[in-house]
Design goal:
By secondary structure, the chain is α/β, with parallel strands linked by helices. The protein contains 16 helices and 20 strands. It binds ligand BES, manganese (II) ion and zinc ion.
Length: 500
């Protein structure tokens, strides 16, 4: 897609389609108003007859003759007073999905024009960033194992309309960042939607390696099981013990800043399928456990964002990845392993495997003496119970880092919510036979937090945040599919850390 800025007045625009906002009241504003006047009040007539009512998500295409544009795409934007970035994105998604099913080739959006949205700081940047992200969201198509999902899209020029105002570098930057983030979200969704017999640890390693080959600033290395054994990563190896599919530890280093600048380390859980192991899960919806590598997929996506934007920072991306399946060689409840950190772990439930692979990855992360560590994991069903599909669960040993991530969540529309990590909870994961147990042995509540407490034992004194994405990484039911979250949230954080 070509993302462009159009500074013409709406009435002079030379393009197939004009995308115009209709709010939930009779008043017409900005481009909608001038276009209405220039076309014999066709829009107000449409509105009066309730062909469109301004309800958010509604959209209608109207033909026009004798003008430099051929169609109006009228889009419901909800109450004017409540017009927000969230509603702007919803409106765009409605209009763009409709347009993508037509043969029109070019369109200008006036949904984010300053005469509608105001000139608040950052508005122009947000408007174009969200436009690019919305386009990538609606144009994702899963075709690998179902080629008939492919729909030809004619639209190839998408403009942000200023309705006669000047272009700005903020608009350009918004497009640039939104395009990179939107593409990365597509990468993540595809990796996550692929079934576990295609998206294996080796497949993830190959995808990361491909990104490494494309960008000079990125170098990727992949540890195999015998190399992991040498590092003492027995916690990770205990999870893959039952599987014949080779486990990998993927490490991608990105250098975008001074050599001695401490890196940010991103870690993502890459269980390519989670049966629960010997602590076998019930079969209901077990297929969804192909998504247990969404943390890993997001890590690959973030590597792509950082490299494509050439962010001014150093970063390391670490992906521990394997399958969790039962067999005669699988780890059994009660087994005790010595992790890379030296701490022994009593594995009371083999279904609490994410924290076991993350433990060794987080220990490995400390070798970089990082500025901070962020891990992302589909870690607990309890997080889905607590926060549902709207907020991811944030836990951190640093108020400073937590505040920044909460803000990045709000700014990107990829929200997160903080949970407490106090000693009361870490007291729940004691073991009579090892330094720590992999599940609570003192009460059954707060499963998301006790998992966070377990991870905290493997980050030393480094600034660290854990994001439990079990509820937000994919949608269930009829709309089953990966969301690409939290690429938006963590990209926002990384972009603001880089000062780009
Ligand atoms: N991958 C699951 C968590 C999960 C479950 C994510 C459902 C999304 C939906 C994780 O490995 C797991 O099985 N966690 C257990 C932990 C328990 C055994 C302490 C859980 O949440 O039930
Ligand atoms: Mn599990
Ligand atoms: Zn899991």
């Amino acid at each position: 897609m070509n993302f462009l800025i159009n500074t013409n007045k709406a009435i002079e625009a030379k393009v197939d389609c004009l995308i115009l906002p209709i709010f939930d009241d009779p008043k017409l504003r900005g481009a909608t108003k001038t276009i209405n006047t220039a076309n014999n009040k066709i829009i107000s007539d449409f509105q009066k007859n309730k062909d469109i009512q301004g309800k958010i998500g509604q959209s209608r295409i109207l033909p026009i003759t004798g003008k430099t544009y051929k169609r109006l795409v009228l889009v419901g934007c909800g109450k004017y007073e409540k017009y927000s970035e969230k509603n702007y994105k919803k409106a765009l998604i409605s209009a763009l999905s409709k347009l993508s099913r037509t043969t029109h080739k070019s369109a200008i959006s006036f949904l984010g024009t300053s005469d509608i949205c105001g000139n608040k700081a950052g508005t122009e940047y947000r408007a174009t960033k969200i436009l690019a992200e919305a386009w990538h969201q609606i144009s994702y198509q899963y075709t690998t194992t179902k080629p008939s999902n492919e729909k030809k899209i004619s639209l190839n020029k998408l403009y942000h309309g200023t309705n006669g105002n000047a272009r700005s570098s903020e608009m350009k930057k918004g497009f640039n960042n939104g395009d990179a983030i939107g593409k990365a979200i597509k990468t993540v969704r595809l990796l996550a939607d692929l079934p576990s017999n295609i998206c294996t640890p080796t497949h993830l390693a190959n995808e990361a390696t491909k990104i490494g080959r494309k960008h000079k600033a990125v170098s990727v290395k992949v540890l195999n099981e015998s190399q992991m054994k040498k590092f003492g990563m027995n916690s990770l190896l205990s999870v893959t013990a039952g599987s014949s599919e080779p486990a990998k530890m993927i490490i991608a280093e990105y250098k975008g800043s001074r050599k001695n600048e401490k890196p940010i380390v991103i870690v993502g859980k890459g269980i390519t399928f989670d049966t629960g192991g010997i602590s076998l899960k019930p079969s209901n919806s077990m297929d969804e456990m192909k998504y247990d590598m969404c943390g890993a997929a997001t890590t690959v996506g973030l590597l792509q964002v950082v490299a494509e934007l050439g962010l001014n920072l150093n970063a390391v991306f670490i992906i521990p990845t394997c399958e969790n399946v039962p067999s005669s060689t699988a780890t059994k409840p009660g087994d005790i392993v010595k992790s890379m950190s030296g701490q022994t772990i009593e594995i009371l439930n083999t279904d609490a495997e994410g924290r076991l692979i993350l433990a060794d990855a987080l220990t490995y992360a400390q070798r970089y003496k990082p500025k901070l560590i962020i891990d992302m994991a589909t870690l607990t069903g309890a997080c889905v119970v607590a926060l549902g599909q709207h907020h991811s669960g944030l836990m951190s040993n640093s108020d400073h880092l937590a505040e920044k991530l909460l803000k990045a969540g709000v700014d990107s529309g990829d929200a997160t919510w903080r949970l407490p990590l106090t000693e009361d909870y870490s007291d729940q994961i004691v073991s009579n036979f090892a330094d720590v147990a992999n599940i609570s042995t003192r009460g059954s509540g707060a499963g998301t937090i006790t998992a966070g407490c377990f991870l905290q034992k493997f980050v030393g004194d480094f600034e660290w945040a854990h994001i439990d994405i079990a509820g937000v990484a994919w949608l269930e039911g009829q709309n089953k599919g990966a969301t690409g979250r939290p690429v938006g949230l963590v990209s926002e954080f990384l972009i603001s850390e880089s000062g780009n």
